[in-house]
Amino acid sequence: CELATGQFRPALRDLNAAIKLAPDRAESYVNRAAAHVALHECPAAHADADKAAQLAPQYAEVAHKLVADCK
């Protein structure tokens, strides 16, 4: 996985495709938020964390902790 190896742009491309195919999968939004954080794209990271929390409330805490320092 590109995200695990630090290849964040390819990871974003793949996660965008995954979200297009399964827009209700919260895990994809959490992972895309992580990629955005790594690229210092904070507004996008926060939007994805919010979407993940909306889709699956059990992800709310982890998603928001992930982006908490991204400003």
Q: Brief description of this entry?
A:
With about 70 residues, the chain is mainly α. Helices cover about 70% and strands about 0% of the residues.
End-to-end distance: 26 Å
Question: Share of helix among residues?
Answer: 55-70%
For the report, how would you describe the main beta sheet?
Answer: none
What is the succession of H and E elements? HHHH
Poorly predicted residue ranges? none
Please tell me how large the radius of gyration is: 11 Å
Estimated share of beta-strand residues: under 5%
Query: pLDDT average, as an integer?
Result: 95
Count of runs of 4 or more consecutive helical residues: 4
Question: What is the general shape?
Answer: globular
What descriptors fit this protein?
4 helices; single chain; 71 residues; mainly alpha; 0% strand
Describe what you observe in this structure.
The structure is a single chain. The chain is mainly alpha-helical. It is 69% helix and 0% strand. The chain has helices at 8-21, 26-38, 42-55, 60-67. Helix 2 packs antiparallel against helix 3 and helix 3 (42-55) runs antiparallel to helix 4. The protein starts with 7 loop residues before the first helix and ends with a helix. 32% of the residues are buried.
How do the strands and helices of this protein lay out in sequence?
Elements: H1 8-21, H2 26-38, H3 42-55, H4 60-67
